[in-house]
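Exercise 3.2. Students should predict the tertiary structure of the chain below and write it as structure tokens, then compare their answer with the key that follows.

Predict this chain's 3D structure.
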Amino acid sequence: MNFPKSMHVLERGWLSSNNVLFVGKEQTAIVDTGYASHAEQTLALVRHVLQERNLDAIYNTHLHSDHCGGNKILQDNYKLRTAIPAAEMVKIDKWDRTKLSFQATGQHCERFSAEDVMHPGDKLRLGDLDWVALSAPGHDPQSVVLYCEAEGILISADALWEKGFGVIFPELDGRPGFKEARATLDMLGELDVRIVIPGHGAPFTDFKKSLAVAHSRVDYLEADPVRNAQNAVKVLLKFLLLDRQKIKLSDVPRLLSEIPLVSAANAHYLSYGTIHLAHWAVTQLRRAGAAEVSGNYLLDAG
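Answer key:
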């Protein structure tokens, strides 16, 4: 993939978001920092690229734990400033766990601070290139994507992947998300994009095809919101499995019941009993090749 020399794309597994590290003449910066369980690995990767240089800035596209879980360790090891979407600042200042997404998704994130905010339309200088922050609600209401017109590069976070996008989380507890996701895709379609760096998965170049796939998926989910709820339950269980690698089958009902967004999705759309929900989710992951059962344990696979 033909990236400018000042850009280093660190492709991670699905537990952690991809990281984009910029090494400019005057400033260094990283976009998104992965999950807390991979924080030491994130630090090692950054040190390998930067060598003796300081990391000057973190930019988080949105505050889901797999995109900001490495913030704290980087803040502890570098003299830097952290920029987040503007509407999230009050939540971070107070570390309001009821309004931040970590508790709702059953995930964890070490407390970090932020000094700067990004508003839609803000111009950023990253890796000696000019970028603009664009509002990209749907997966997350406050998410932004970053676009470099001169290079035709889009850092799309979870608003667009090669074959879809992140779970439309707002819809799980009764807030709008499908219309917002579609509007984001329409907005992205107006851009001249050569390369997409998604939040997860390898960078890709067939931008128009990925947009068509994403539009089709929004239509599919909106036609029956139960599908979005079911997908969310599977994704959140898979995330737990990616983190832990194995889970006792007898613990799955409890673990799912302790995730507020799973409970919300079940209450609004599924109405499964606790045991039924766990059995259904495990079965779905096994059918997809994303998990396997060995003895009394559910194991990560795929």
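Discussion points: The chain has a mean pLDDT of 97. The chain has two domains: 7-223, 226-300.
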